[in-house]
Amino acid sequence: MKEIPIYQVDAFTHGPFTGNPAAVCVLTEPVTADTMQKIAMENNLSETAFITRENGEWLIRWFTPETEVDLCGHATLASASVVLNILAPQSNEVIFRSRVMGHLTVRRRGDMLELDFPSDTLHECELPPIIAESLGTEPTECHMGRSDYLLLYGTEEDILALKPDFRMLAGIESRGVIATAPGKDVDFVSRFFCPGAGIDEDPVTGSAHTTLTPFWSERLKKNHLTASQLSSRGGYLECSLRGNRTLISGRALLYLKGEIYA
To answer: For residues 228 and 235, what is the distance between their CA atoms, to the nearest angstrom?
Structure first.
């Protein structure tokens, strides 16, 4: 039986019990992908990250309760918080090597941590009827990115009013749906729905902001943006567009630590 250290961290938080909780498992021995998936299912959080120190670098993988994903922002922020505040507190940055997205750097930025992720590219497209029916309202525009649809609405109130039929929405042929609009106190707001990956509504989605940042940067003609994700827990992010990279900053708070026996 292996003992695996586990940390639960609230990422993109603006205070206790806000932001997106992620589990971070620190592996010192090899664990199969099947075991990782079962641990993520047992944790029942939107994401569980597994990090391993190997040949002088950190490897990272992310799992929802149902599947492995190619990129996860909040679980990377949570993993960086564990490394920079607990495992290697003398460091100011950590570089994770992922299976699909390559090397991902996270740096200290004041009381925040800053993710350095590849930006998404978008193209305008037809709104799939299943999305319109499941959301009960049509956006003013529909775009497709690397893995998600992005729907533009007119106001923050429009975003808050969305009540998706998640079982219907699970049938879309994409990872998820980002709904966004101009914000009142921030540059833009959003919500993210991905029931097909086992998460009806994600509290705060870092990876979605690699899509949202270039979208809003072009519309607002500015490279530094503030953002809120309007889930029930809520989250705050600061985003910057740097060429083909998106810098996403947020705060992280440790909620618990312990051991898994698997």
So the answer is: 6
| pLDDT tens across the length of the chain (262 residues) | 789 999 999 999 999 999 999 999 999 999 999 999 999 999 999 999 999 999 889 999 999 999 999 999 999 999 999 999 999 999 999 999 999 999 999 999 999 999 999 999 999 999 999 999 999 999 999 999 999 999 999 999 999 999 999 999 999 989 999 999 999 999 999 999 999 888 899 999 999 999 999 999 999 999 999 999 999 999 999 999 999 999 999 999 999 999 999 8
Question: CATH classification of 3-118+249-261, choosing from 1.10.238.10, 3.10.310.10, 3.30.70.100, 1.10.760.10?
Answer: 3.10.310.10
**Cα–Cα distance, 47 to 175 (Å, whole number):** 14
Q: Which residues are catalytic?
A: 47
The reply to whether domains 3-118+249-261 and 123-243 share a CATH topology is yes
- 101: number of CA atoms within 13 Å, CB side? 24
The predicted model scores a pTM of: 0.91
Q: What is the CATH number of domain 123-243?
A: 3.10.310.10
